[in-house]
Amino acid sequence: MQTLTNKRILLGITGGIAAYKSADLIRRLRDQGAEVQVIMTKAACEFITPLTMQALSGKPVHIELLDPVTEAGMGHIELARWSDVIVVAPATANFIARLSHGMADDLLSAICLVAAVPILIAPAMNQQMWLNAATQANIQNLAARGIILAGPASGMQACGETGPGRMLEPLELVAAVNGLFETRALDGKHVLVTAGPTQEAIDPVRFISNRSSGRMGYAIARAAQEAGAEVTLVSGPTAIPAPERVKYVPVKTAEQMREAVLAQAAKQDIFIAAAAVADYRCAEIAGEKIKKTAADLVLTLRKNPDILAEVAQLPRPPYTVGFAAETTAVKENALIKLRSKGLDMIAANRVGDGLGFESDENSLEVLWDGGTISLELTSKDKLARQLIDIVARKYNEKHPPQSY
Asked: Which residue range(s) make up the domain with 115?
């Protein structure tokens, strides 16, 4: 089971003998579906070669802070923005001390300082170094800043001594990384997500559709599942495999999507309508392939049902989140849709000219009654996790946990 599918992990390797374990860690992370980029300190290169790490990760290894090529585009900042999480394994006593004091004199420490993602460190050092008051003070300082500690374990060390300071084994670190994405923000909740386009038949071989790839909706379904929800995904035709641990309902037309959604909606706590449902369908579908004869062909179109509005108007609707793909006046049009359909929240983005559809990245303007937040351009997976955090927070404000 690939539980880190589409996660972007920046792996920092510092100069300790446990660096050899990092080779296996890369393999284990990739086995779980993660994309891994490696940063090595110069001291780390004395223990294991960058070529080894490049072969295992499938990507160039980053070492130099002042690299003339990458830093022309602020490479250290771009790497930090690329990642979903930074893992430093092994993290030596020296690196921990420098991170604790905000040093930024090499690539790895500079990235950690600029990062806006979780940082997990796996200490590895001599047991006396670990127990030293200076190291313990540095660890407490990092913990107070939200940096996550994984380990160390106790046991026989390379120096021949026995005690705390061994780096956790790769599978233990993979489990710790998995735990970072399992926020439990939607524990026990039922979430219904729609994704992808719909296809409205013209004849047996042609249909009306749109450019939606389904990537955003599928990312939202994964993010909701990671947050602890029981997720149902109703999807139009896409080329994306169904997410694991999610109830998957494939459909083709808007009418089929409507039926599937309404069959589930009353049992849901949250409904997120990320699908790009066709606004119109053919009034009549030809029983045979329409031949290319006349110079012009006229199709009579009939308006499709508004699935989102129907769910929002149920007697006891779920917390309803819509999507608005706009080419102009993004916020203004989204606000109209929010109010006219009676939604709890709407996520709007600009589409066209390579934006939104058929792209791995997106940005969103998230609006609700009395509030708004802008989510900057990033991968759709990271954006989905940010959106789910907002949805969970606003849902819990509207439906506070019952105290007994």
From this structure: 8-181
pLDDT value for 357:
65
| Phi and psi based region of residue 202 (left: phi greater than 0; alpha: psi -120 to 50; beta: remaining) | alpha
- Residue 404, in any domain of the structure: no
Residues 259 and 139 in one domain: no
Beta-sheet pairing, 301-303 with 280-282: antiparallel
Q: How far apart are CA 208 and CA 308, in angstroms?
A: 20
Structure tokens given for 120? 């997990």
User: Residue 2 domain-assigned?
Assistant: no
Whether 277 and 323 map to the same domain: the answer is yes
Q: Establish if 267 belongs to a structural domain.
A: yes
pLDDT digits (tens, 9 = 90+) for 258-271: 999 999 999 999 99
Rounded Cα distance between 14 and 12, Å, is: 7
CA distance 126 to 112: 24
Residues 384 and 250 in one domain: yes
Q: What is the pLDDT of residue 97?
A: 95
* The domain boundary residue, chosen from 157, 181, 205: 181
What pLDDT, in 10s, does the model give residues 202-227?
A: 999 999 998 888 999 999 999 999 89
Q: Which helix (H) or strand (E) holds 235?
A: strand 230-235
112 catalytic? Reply is no
Task: Give the active site residue among 45, 112, 159, 282.
Answer: 159
Boundary residue ending a domain (181, 216, 233): 181
Phi, psi (degrees; rounded to nearest 5) at 38: -110, 135
Distance CA 323, CA 338 (A): 9
Cis peptide before 241 (omega within 30 of 0): no
> What CATH number is given to the structural domain containing 294?
3.40.50.10300
